[in-house]
Amino acid sequence: MDAGGGADEFAVGCILSIKTTLGDEFEGQVITFDRPSNVLVLQEGIKSAMGPRRNIRLLKTNYIKEFLYLGQAEDPLDAKKCFLDLSALQSREETAIRQAEIEAERIGVGVSAEAQSIFDALSKTLPVRWDKTVIVVMNEVRVSSPYLPESVTGGTPAANERVRKVLELERKRLQARGGGQ
Description:
Elements (H helix, E strand, L loop, with lengths): L13 E7 L4 E10 L4 E10 L2 E10 L3 E9 L13 H20 L7 H11 L4 E4 L2 E4 L3 E3 L8 E2 L3 H20 L5
Antiparallel strand pairs: 1-2, 1-5, 2-3, 3-4, 6-7, 7-8, 8-9
Helix pairs in contact: 2-3
């Protein structure tokens, strides 16, 4: 697309049919066009079971292969016609906070990168959590620093054996990468 020739076509409220150089085809309403960065911000309407929703698409204009002006609509940013579902936003916020807390609990405080790698390896196949600097596996097996197979305590003999096996394999992997001792 000629970057200089079509910029006037991107007035706020215009409805465009766009084909991109990547093969996408869609229709959207122009929310804004930022000339310095050459970014076009479009709003696509989506009909769903939850009612009308909007999808916002940011598109570098050099990815526009061709576009067709379909008409002019009302200002998409008219505050009188904007609707925010506050309960849905609060729900998304709570979900994001819970997810962030879960991810934060998976990061050991005051432990080495090696200990974190061992924790991450164990977490791929077993339920694990940190208890200060001790890795707790299946709520019964404990792996203390220096996180060697001999450092495994508690739990059933079968659970201990499984944790030791994963620990040995991860230590070999770390040593192969040059990160082990």
